[in-house]
Each structure stands twice: as C-alpha cells, then as structure tokens.
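User: Show me an example of a complex going from sequences to structure tokens.

Assistant: Sure. Here are the input components:
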Amino acid sequence: MSKISKDQVKHVANLARLAITEEEAEKYSEQLSAIIDFSEQLNELDTTDVEPTTHVLEMKNIMRKDEPKEWISKEDALKNAPDQKDGQFRVPSILD
Amino acid sequence: MSVLDLTIKELQEKLNNKDITVTEIVEATYERINETDDEVQAFVTLNKEEALKQAKALDEEGINENQFPLFGMPIGIKDNIVTKGLRTTCSSQILSNLDDPLYDATAMQKLNNAKAINIGKLNMDEFAMGSSTENSSMKVTRNPWNTDFVPGGSSGGSAAAVASLQVPFALGSDTGGSVRQPASYCGVVGMKPTYGRISRFGLVAFASSLDQIGPLTKTVEDNARILEIIAGQDEMDSTSANVEVPKYSEALTGDVKGLKIAVPKEYFGEGVDEEVKTSVRQALKVLESQGAEWDEVSLPHSKYAVAAYYMIASSEASANLARFDGIRYGKRAENAEDMMDMFKKSRSEGFGEEVKRRIMLGTFALSSGYYDAYYKKAQQVRTLIKQDFDQIFEEYDVVLGPTAPTTAFEIGDQIDDPLTMYANDIMTIPVNLAGVPGISVPCGFHPENNLPIGLQIIGKHFDESTVYRVAHAYEQATDHHKQKPQLGGAK
C-alpha cells in the first residue's frame, strides 16, 4: 500500500502548479512513497523538546537602510518577459 | 606547460614581467575548450567576444596587482550564478531563453571588481538538484579522467572544466555537497564556505538555508585567493554574515603541529569503498607525520542526515521554484487556456524530472497535516546533527574523512534510482545542515579504475583559515593535485 496515493499526488501537483498525466501520477506515487518511507527513519529519534533549526547562524532582523536607490528600469524589467503590452507584463485571461 | 596550469601567483608574476598578456591567457582558455569540450561537455554558454574585449582593455591598462588581485584571471561560472547580459539557464529548459539577465550576482560583481575575466557558464544538474550532472537539460558533462563516468554534481561542469585545464578556476554552488563531491570525483580542490560567508544574492535559490557559493581550483592556495575576494557581508543578502574576512592565502603556513583532528567512525562505515578508506587513512598519516594529532570520534546522528536533508531541501526548493511562472522571464508554454493552465503547462514543460520530483516532495512535506511529521521533524533532527559538530569542535580543530563514499560512477548507472543517487552525499550533507565550512582535496586514485579520491576537511563556523591551512599542508606533502587527465586522444 503506497504511502502517497495517486489522488494525493494529483492534489499535491495542483498545489505545486504542475500538470501531470495518469502515468506520472502512478510513478510519483511510487517514488514519493519510497522517499517518505526512507525518511520515516527520522522517527527513531526522540525529538521532544528539540528546537527546530531553520537557520544555522544566530542573527535576525538584518535590515539595510530604507533609502530609494537606482535599480532596473521598467524597460529592463520587461525585456526578458514572454509577453508584454503597454509597459506591463501580459498574461492569459484570469476571469471569463 | 600550458599557461592554464599555472597558479594565480605564477600568472600574476608573468603578467608583471610582461612574459605574457591577458589576451594570450584568455585565448589559451578558448583554444583548450575548443580542443577538449567535445569530449568533456562542460560549458553551456561561452563569453568569448566579451572576454577577449575585456582582456584587450586590461592589456592596455597594465597590471597593478595590489589594486586588482585577480587581474586578468580567467574563471568559469556555474550557470546558476546570475551574470549580467550573459545567458543564465540553471541548465533548465524553463530558463533556456534567459539571454539577457539584468544584474550580476554579488560574487560575480566582486570578481569583476578584482578584474577577473568570465570565460563562460558551466553545466550543472538542473537547478543544482543532482549528484552527477546527468540531470542537466542541456548536456551530460563527462569526467575528464574517464569520459564514460560522471563528473559528479551538481557543479559537474565547474569541476570537469578545472580538471581538464579549460579554465584554472571556477565557481560552483554547494547545497548538499555540490562543490565538494564533483571536486572529489574530478580530482580538484573544492570549498564550501560557512553558511553566510559569501552573499547568495544572484545565486538562483535552491534551498536557501543550505546554499553557498564555493570556488573550485587546482590548488588550495588559488582557492583561498578566490574566496578572500568573493566573501563578505552584502546588503543584498540578509543572511550574509557580518564577520570579518581574513586573508585566507596568508593562513597557509604549512604548520599543523599540535592540530587536533577528529575522525568520525561514521564516515568509514558500510558503503564506503575500502580503497577510499585506505587513501584517507594514508592522508591522516601524512598529517600525523607533520605533527597533527587525531582521535576517532562519533557523530552519532550522521546516518539521519540524508533523510533530513531531502525533506528540508525539497521543501525550501518547492517554495523557491514557485517563482518560475512564465510571466516575467523564462519560457511560457503556448496554447494555454487561462492563467492557471499557463502556470501548469509552463512549469511542467520547463522543469525536468528530478526538479519536479523534489517540488512534489517539498510541496507534500509542507502541506496541511504533514508539516509537523515531515518538515518540522527534519528540522529538529537538523538541530541534533548541528549539536554533534558543536560538541566535537569544543575539543578538535577539524573533522576529517572521505568526501564521497566511492569514486565516480558510470554515466547512466544511478539515474533511475533517486535513493541510491542521494547516498552519494552522505558525508557532505551533514556539513550543509550544520552550516560549517568543508573542503575536498585530492588524496589519491583508486587502484582499479584510476579515478580520483577526495579527502574532506571540515572546520568550525567561519574558520575557513584552519581548513585551508590543513588542506594546504597536506597538499604540499603530496603530489596527487599535480596529476592530469589525458584528453584529446589517448585515454
């Protein structure tokens, strides 16, 4: 019995904004289940009261000065865009 | 001997004495690439026209080595480090049309300021996800020592280019071993500095709490000279540390008397090739003869590192790679019905298999109901792994072991088996999880396949100086780093 079912795979693919075929759903179900199985070994460790490490160095709230400065121009910002119009990024319709 | 076989110091001397011009150095790199890259396949994009233009300008300007420490030095750049005006693809189809990036990564900017010359962009596993450079959507890079074998990864292009003398220096990036493991497989020197040592601004993010840029070179001294240029705090990266950058090249005293080395028994366990163990033990003897002392120690949580890493790195990757949406840059799929369809089609067509697998794993681990069981658990285990190192470093100066359990494997051997592939990083991953610096230096050749073996030296947070000092003392006592692969004909 797979740890991650095909339906779960489809749900996760939707969250990740990936289109997947039935075949891929099957394959990911197997592969992800194997990787999750492998990671279950972490449960051998008692981590009660162990703080999670999100960042290895003890530093926080590093800010640079909030000053306006030269950055890329609108023309530059648009020059690698797949589609643009009137100085803006253009995308397919969002609403009908 | 080729000019590309010289060190930074030797090249600078030759430039100073007008024995050579920058143009000649740069031309030599392109000639060598031309000769060997059909076999090696290291480069994704060349910067020839611009590099020769810069070389000419530097020749007219004349050298002032005190002012510009990397004057005229040719360097290759891993293709996940953003280079202004030069295509940056991360070896992914989704960025294959990003021909004109808008800015330079801070590390690149610092190389430019030191007057180094960017020769071109180097192949990698797509978005740095992989250990063999087979996951590139551009090409499969080959190990210069035997082109049937992988160069390692993800910075396989960088390691292979340096090993085959196409460029004397390169930048890579290391999230779970991606500088050190290919350095080991290709017989070159590769450093992953302390997390926060080098700005990550302009390094396309894979796993933000683990990623670091690192230099790959033929000698320890060159490596130190490049790191001392590119390190330092940067206002564009809030995780870059406000810690002074020493002159690493001045730390190479050759003196390791009284140095205390910890040798974790877990790094000599099952799955580690006997010949690899033998080479590393011999390296230990060399250091011992130079006056260092060593003890066997235990890093008891090492065996959990790979599992914790894949949860953490994939989770962070799933968030970081959300930015590739086909809107602002990169490839957009055609014939999308609406916005959502455009996102899904662009991402599905643009990302390769391994990248999608990790995005899926990370999205799953972060999704409602699973977060505590997988992601948080992995971060707690990360704390235990970090504490293992903290304890050892209370008593010892460095930790030493193999860089990788084996020498390079054959192309195609592991590509279909993610878990086997992940096991290549078993001794490099803990270093990223703990955020400490680690280097791989050549320590021999496997007697059966004649492929290079790497020695890993791990140090305390921000103590790259000691890591370099030990690596250099060992290197100077041996000649593994002087061996060259035969390319362009006889194997």
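The lines above are the inputs; the final block is the predicted structure for all two components together. The first helix of chain B runs from residue 8 to 16.
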